[in-house]
Input
Amino acid sequence: MCKHEVMIDRYTVCKHRQWLEYTGRKEDCDLPTCRTSPRHMHNTKNCACHAYVEDIEKTRSVHDTICPGCESIQRSAARM
Ligand SMILES: [Zn+2]
Ligand SMILES: [Zn+2]
Ligand SMILES: [Zn+2]
Output
């Protein structure tokens, strides 16, 4: 299983994590039976190999607030 590093922001109040972007850093499993590996042995699209990619979360910053998603929900709820 290959691993892709992704940047996240953490929000301590609602405990949500917001995904920002992939850093481009990858850990390759180097298996010929892994679809996301460059060593993958098949050229056909529909081979039986797995294409599971695990994400490694790398915390960019921690906020002592709620996340923007929860904030907009709270804001629209307050209007009703
Ligand atoms: Zn892999
Ligand atoms: Zn394959
Ligand atoms: Zn939230």
